[in-house]
Each structure stands twice: as structure tokens, then as C-alpha cells.
């Protein structure tokens, strides 16, 4: 995705399991480079022909503070510097705002564009079709497979209920089978 117009939201969604609305709603003021945190507290959604930018998220549990990963910190610092250059180049035609995911002229990315561009990108690279939302599922699956509990993954994703996270329970079963094999091996007398 490097250099693609939707690189920022894709990186954010894949890394943090963000909903598209959360990635597009992420603002620079929500990133604390000193504390190394990212606050999820704003969304950008499309409602018919209208794009709605709002200081709300899907559910109360979706308000969360995430740790700023080393790779994301490097990426965001570079992106911020690039946006500063673009602002200077565009001058008065620059769309001033605090959004992270935007065009070179500062105009925020449209949710519908992100979805359609993601689909076209995958097709152009002969990659399997996945929905943009599957980046969120992949993040959750990777965490479960790495041994994190469903409750931990629930909090990471900002689910209000463990029921939403239980779709990944089958992945934990695989971990338990591996654990059972390991226990059997360690306790085996033969």
C-alpha cells in the first residue's frame, strides 16, 4: 500500500483493528507522541450522499486509548511531516483540518472512496478479494492466535460485549489443542 492514497487508513485499521469510520476519524490531536498513545474518539461515516464527521464512536466501549506502536510512530511522524510540506505547497487552497487520513490538499478521505479504492487495489495486484472491514477481523485473528484472550481482544477492538468477539473463539480452540498436546508431551512418562 506504500504510496497509495489509502495507505494511512489501511495501516491504521490493520494495526489497531479499527473500523473504517474510526481510522478516517482519527485526528492528530488524538496522537500523543510523548505518551505514545492514540485515542479513538471520533468517526467519519457516509450516510447516503452526506459525509458525517462526528465526535462519537459506534458504542461507549469504542472510546479507547491504544499504544502507539514503534512502526506506527515512525509512519505517522513521516506522514505528519509530509502533510506539513503539502500544506505549504497548496497554500490557500489547502483544506485546513486535524484529520490524519486526507488527500495531499488536506481534504479528508471519503469513506466510500476508501472502500472502492481498497477493492480496486486488491484487484490490480491480483490479490484475493477481502472487504475493508476484514482488516479488522485479521487484526483480531492475529491477536487471538498469538494467545490473547477474547476479553483482551474485545477491549482492543472496542466491542461493547464479549458476544461480538466470540466469533474468534474457534481460533482459541486451536490454541487449546496445541496447549493440550504440549501438556501431554511434558507429562508423558514414555
Explain the overall architecture.
- This protein has 190 residues and is mainly alpha-helical.
- The strands form 2 sheets. Strands 1-2-5 form a 3-stranded antiparallel sheet.
- The protein folds into 2 domains: 1-132, hpI Integrase, Chain A (Orthogonal Bundle); 133-190, no CATH class.
- The chain is elongated, with a radius of gyration of 19 Å.
- It is 49% helix and 11% strand.
- It starts with 6 loop residues before the first helix and ends with a helix.
- The protein contains 8 helices and 5 strands; from the N terminus they run H-H-E-E-E-E-E-H-H-H-H-H-H.
- It has helices spanning 7-16, 20-25, 70-90, 111-124, 134-145, 150-157, 162-165, 169-187, and strands spanning 31-32, 37-40, 43-47, 50-54, 64-67.
Q: What order do the helices and strands come in, and which of them pair?
A:
Elements (H helix, E strand, L loop, with lengths): L6 H10 L3 H6 L5 E2 L4 E4 L2 E5 L2 E5 L9 E4 L2 H21 L20 H14 L9 H12 L4 H8 L4 H4 L3 H19 L3
Antiparallel strand pairs: 1-2, 2-5, 3-4
Helix pairs in contact: 1-5, 5-6
Name the features.
190 residues, mainly alpha, hpI Integrase, Chain A, 2 domains, three-stranded antiparallel β-sheet, two-stranded antiparallel ribbon, 49% helix, elongated
